[in-house]
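2024-03-11 09:14:02 INFO queue: dequeued item Alpha-1,4 glucan phosphorylase, len=822
2024-03-11 09:14:02 INFO validating residues
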Amino acid sequence: IIQVEDDRTGLSIEALKRGFLDNLFYVQGKFSGIATKNDCYMALAYTVRDRLFKRWVDTAETYTKNGSRTVCYLSAEFLMGPHLGNNLINLGIYDQVKQAIEELGLDFYELLEQEEEPGLGNGGLGRLAACYLDSMASLEIPSLGYGIRYEFGIFEQKIQDGWQVEITDKWLRFGNPWDVARPEWSVEVKLGGHTESYVDENDRYRVRWIPFQVVKGIPYDTPILGYKVNTANTLRLWAAEAPESFDFEAFNSGDYVKAVQAKMTSENLSKVLYPNDNVSQGKKLRLAQQIFFVSCSLQDMIRIMKGQKIPLEKFHEKFVIQLNDTHPSIAVAELMRLLVDEYGMEWEQAWEITTKAFAYTNHTLLPEALEKWPLGLFGELLPRHLQIIYEINGRFLDDVRIKFPDDFDRLKRMSLIDESGERYIRMANLACVGSFAINGVAQLHTELLQKDVLHDFYEMYPEKFNNKTNGITPRRFMVLSNPRLCELIDSKIGNTWIKNLHELRQLEAFAEDVEFRHKFRQIKQAIKQDLAEYIKAKNGIDVDANSLFDIQAKRFHEYKRQHLNALHIITLYNRIKANPNIDITPRTFLFGGKAAPGYYIAKLTIKLINSIGEVVNRDPDVRGRLKVVFLEDYSVKFAQRVYPAADLSEQISTAGKEASGTGNMKFALNGALTIGTLDGANVEIREEVGEENFFLFGLTAEEVYAKKAQGYDPMYYYNRDPELKLAIDRISSGFFSHGDANLFKPLLDTLLHRDEYMLLADYRSYIECQEQVSQAYRDVENWTRMAILNVARMGKFSSDRSISDYCEDIWQIQPVKIELSE
Ligand code: 26M
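2024-03-11 09:14:37 INFO prediction written
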């Protein structure tokens, strides 16, 4: 018999081509002659999607039949990045598909470029959630990601006259081939209104919530395929709509406009991602978004249990819910409400289940990022949850009193309600009380949580605390983004390192191999050349691919200290101006990242960097030895281009401020050396790669606190370090701002008079360390040796390792193998 491959599932070049042409015809409704690039991208996306569906359906069927224990990862953000390339990698058909597309006379890379990435996150926290989904699927862990299908994701960044300008991200404009709406699993979420008490038929005191508004949540499912396994888990994102039943009344009473308005208010809930990173503003719509996706998700879990005929009493056996920061922590109160009010469970039993179901990850030590909701606002939107929180709090404070008698200050600090002034609900306290596990995201971060931010909770529940150092997926951030380096690695140690990143250790031996070093260098060089061409095309700036590529790519925030990097650039520039013949190592300074639209100092820092670039890039004295380039609209897609091109990774946050960082890991894995402080995961990266392969500078977290306690005065450093003074005076003189001495004043004022993030204290140490970097870069062979050792020793930072640790220590969950049915 002749076996003919199916157009929907076949993996041969011919089947792939037929599948593509079929989808171009039936999905896009076009013939090749008039098909746009986007039509072709869509047809290709559907062709790949077709090949995922068998695995997706079989995975769902297996989990349903087995009633498998499942991790629910609740996150307000999932920063997934483009799906197409990643799915090709995980399916193991990248090369075949590339060939098929090329045989059709199309440019494969151009089609990959077409994808509008779902930018449904701000930065580290959202991207971590995406890496974890990849690892959970790759490790065959039954899991569901739950979040919000924002219509507008993180804004698109344009640079105009050196300033950031925000443009709405209309990522759904051309449709999304990767998700499937499941209106049949829609749920309703109540908002506002008031509560009433009543006595039920069994003489039990009950509460009923009469909402002001009901919003419908519609789930959209995206398959999350693991790497070279059959597991395809689900990312389920909720979109808000008005329920038909609700606008009926207004329609019938003839007030059509009012009815449509009510519809609009409902749809607002999933309209836009809040573009703040590491700061909470206490906006009502944000709280509404949180309860919306949390309630939808919990109701969905209950529906799944019913479908599998598992009694609700076993909720915590069926599901473990990981709270990605406090953003979904209202879930603690919402699960209590569902169990007690809607399913009539006794409080004690409901609390037992709830506190066995939740685990909480903290991602920040910054006080301004800790979520707290004004009590009034909270009660208006969630009157029933407010009562439940009071009840939880009363019982909790009784426990505190028993453990720590007569410690009134402690009670005030630990209360779920801040009553020191205007009253607030403290979401971190709710998350700590309602969870059985609490983790930080790097060793140092977890220690600081225990010592400081969550110290009282650590004393109350030491057994809940644990560390889970972050990780990144090597599939997206190596296999997909750096094929040339992967090919070299594979030629020496095979390709099983992709599933077990520790195997990269075998590369250590090749650090001493001249020929390997040469190839390693050639690859880095070629990638830098590509980026240089991109920069030439986009920014019109010539950059020298032989220069040291010094890159800082991350959100703009004062604690991340992009302006310290800027002070270094100015210092080098000043040295050249003082002595144009000075011998310096040529460098290209690249910056990428967005500032929160309302964060003035961060936006001014972007303007400063662009202004420095304007002067430095064209000053003939510089002779092209320094270039400063701002890379517009940094995104996951763009990040994949940037990491492989770096020689030097800037990880220069004030010690004690960056919880972990994950960009630091992506750079090092791609063979960049790090200049960094002892902050977040830098500490562990340095431990792994060896101190001789890491450029360390700056105060330690302890020294930062000690200095603050002594009464830190930035002027002390300004007055004593002539080079520092000169650098700052260059800015304040208006030299970089066409003579305008006022432009950067707000930035300089914070530096000279408060310097919350201690740039001036770390300046000299940073400059000296950068000099070591410049010297080291001149020793080409040794630099390459160090870079190879960085790659070889990054095994710990695979998100597979992080996820295995979560599974063992927190989730108590095992892999489930998926066999494909006939
Ligand atoms: C909160 C309230 C209202 C609107 C937005 C927010 C909000 C959004 C994102 C707050 C924080 C957000 O992200 C914080 C974040 O990305 N933290 C980073 O998490 C990474 C993953 O653990 C760490 O590596 C970074 O160090 C940490 O800064």
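2024-03-11 09:14:37 INFO annotate: The first strand starts at residue 70 and ends at 74.
2024-03-11 09:14:38 INFO item closed
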